[in-house]
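Duplicate of #3305? Posting structure anyway:
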């Protein structure tokens, strides 16, 4: 880092210290006024004892204890100069506003909300994290809990459960869930074993999930049960039966057969193993995979999440991030132990979520038809002695989100829906054609030990290229049959083929795209 950049950072920190001192003076003034008649207000301004800059420059301590409601009330009655630390001298300092409710429930948390932490703070000793180590004890657990007994030893930014951590917050705030609830992992172990693969110990192969995430309660039992550390699985594996209407019809008309192992009954019950995977990002590896600098990645994540995770900036020593996004689900048909066997045939469908089509049958795209087709071929592969694999990612609307997707739909239908303008309509609203960025997608294949795919049920050039660039061979690419393409989705299909999607047919010319049009608004009037 250049001297000019360092000087600029130092100047910014000095300005921040000045601004925060001014804020502290205002808060102290407010506190003195409120203390006279604090029964009149439900909120009290807490003292802003120090600024983060003071912590950085003076190596101030950080709290590692929680207080009970009684202890908090006693501290609030104590003279201000005695509020700077707890009995052991390890106190977090941060501006906050407290209420009577939060005071009563302060036990599991630190005395004051911790806005951020710094590597040089006293008491900050993160659990070891040697990403890519083959031994899970050497690698270390992913510790993301923000509770008082974990905040000093966390080695990950973010929260367990991804986007669902918000619902957990609501449950705690409403009193339905104790803030310090620890899961009971009895009987939750996987019903099948996903064998450790060489790829698990290659830090360049797996950067977006924890390969040991399904074995947390096994490998870190002592830390969880004896030390009381809140460490949670980020992968769960189970087994189930599925019923899919389209495939039930295929069984009835004889297109698919009941074999008793994969399709287990005449009603169409399908035997499947499933794995749910929450994202766990190793930031240096993610940055390398995306071909960006880690510092730039951290800054972009910080800014574009509304500053939700300041430790992306203040804690460069924390290399693991649990992003607040959806994960993925793996569906395995056949013998899961053969996934890593290059001599066993494997059929794969990589599918990105489309709620409108996948669940509700919208005909503006080919998502559900292609998903069902991939499922059908995967099941047939398993019945013939191979393995079938569906990987379902939560990337709604090309990771642009369903609101953006529907805005694009409106623009397409109002302005004339043609293949020639298909991507332009998306760019007008979102600024980009696609934000799925398939570079991280191959990680789940490395976790399963896959090195070769015999039949790839996808036309996406981005998915194909990402897998191949990560060392996974693809022997055959299988487009969706024409008869499965809904009429109103031909706009999407033609536009994608012209943009580089795989096809065994002809590639439309630019002038041809203007003639491929979709249903207009007037056809919706019934």
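Output from current build:
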């Amino acid at each position: 880092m250049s001297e000019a950049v360092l000087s600029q950072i130092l100047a910014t920190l000095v300005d921040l210290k000045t601004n925060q001192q001014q804020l502290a003076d205002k808060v102290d003034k407010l506190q003195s006024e409120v203390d006279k008649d604090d029964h009149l207000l439900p909120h009290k301004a807490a003292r802003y004892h120090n600024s983060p800059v003071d912590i950085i420059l003076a190596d101030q301590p950080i709290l590692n204890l929680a207080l009970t409601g009684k202890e908090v009330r006693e501290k609030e009655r104590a003279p201000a100069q005695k509020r700077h630390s707890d009995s052991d001298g390890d106190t977090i300092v941060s501006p906050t506003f407290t209420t009577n409710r939060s005071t009563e429930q302060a036990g599991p948390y630190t005395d004051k909300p911790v806005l951020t932490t710094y590597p040089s703070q006293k008491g900050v000793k993160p659990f070891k994290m040697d990403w890519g180590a083959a031994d899970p004890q050497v690698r270390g657990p992913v510790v993301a809990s923000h509770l008082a007994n974990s905040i000093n030893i966390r080695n990950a930014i973010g929260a367990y459960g991804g986007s669902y951590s918000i619902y957990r917050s609501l449950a705690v705030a409403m009193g339905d869930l104790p803030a310090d609830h620890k899961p009971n992992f009895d009987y939750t172990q996987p019903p099948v074993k996903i064998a450790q693969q060489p790829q698990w110990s290659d830090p360049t192969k797996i950067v977006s999930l924890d390969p040991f995430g399904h074995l947390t309660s096994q490998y870190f039992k002592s830390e969880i049960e004896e030390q009381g550390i809140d460490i949670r699985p980020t992968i769960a594996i189970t087994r189930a039966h599925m019923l899919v209407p389209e495939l039930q019809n295929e069984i009835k008309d004889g297109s698919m057969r009941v074999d008793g192992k994969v399709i287990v009954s005449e009603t169409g019950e399908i035997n499947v193993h499933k794995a749910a995977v929450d994202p766990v990002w190793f930031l240096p590896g993610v940055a390398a995979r995306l071909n960006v600098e880690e510092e730039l990645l951290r800054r972009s994540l910080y800014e574009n999440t509304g500053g939700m995770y300041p430790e992306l900036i203040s804690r460069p020593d924390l290399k693991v991030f649990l992003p607040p996004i959806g994960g993925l689900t793996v569906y395995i048909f056949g013998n899961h132990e053969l996934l890593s066997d290059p001599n066993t045939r494997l059929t794969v469908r990589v599918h990105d979520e489309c709620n409108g089509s996948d669940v509700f049958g919208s005909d503006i795209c080919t998502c559900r038809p292609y998903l069902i087709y991939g499922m059908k071929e995967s099941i047939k592969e398993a019945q013939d002695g191979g393995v079938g694999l569906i990987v379902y990612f939560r990337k709604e609307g090309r990771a642009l989100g369903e609101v953006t997707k529907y805005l694009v739909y409106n623009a397409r239908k109002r302005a004339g829906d043609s293949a020639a303008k298909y991507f332009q309509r998306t760019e007008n609203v979102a600024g980009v054609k696609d934000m799925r960025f398939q570079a991280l997608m191959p990680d789940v294949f490395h976790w399963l030990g896959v090195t070769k795919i015999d039949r790839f049920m996808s036309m996406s050039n981005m998915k194909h290229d990402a897998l191949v660039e990560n060392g996974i061979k693809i022997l055959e690419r299988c487009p969706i049959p024409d008869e499965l393409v809904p009429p109103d989705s031909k706009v999407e299909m033609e536009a994608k083929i012209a943009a580089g999607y795989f096809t065994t047919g002809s590639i439309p010319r630019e002038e041809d795209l203007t003639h491929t049009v979709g249903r207009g608004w007037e056809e919706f009037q019934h």
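Confirmed duplicate; merging threads. The chain is about 35% helix and 10% strand. The radius of gyration is 27 Å.
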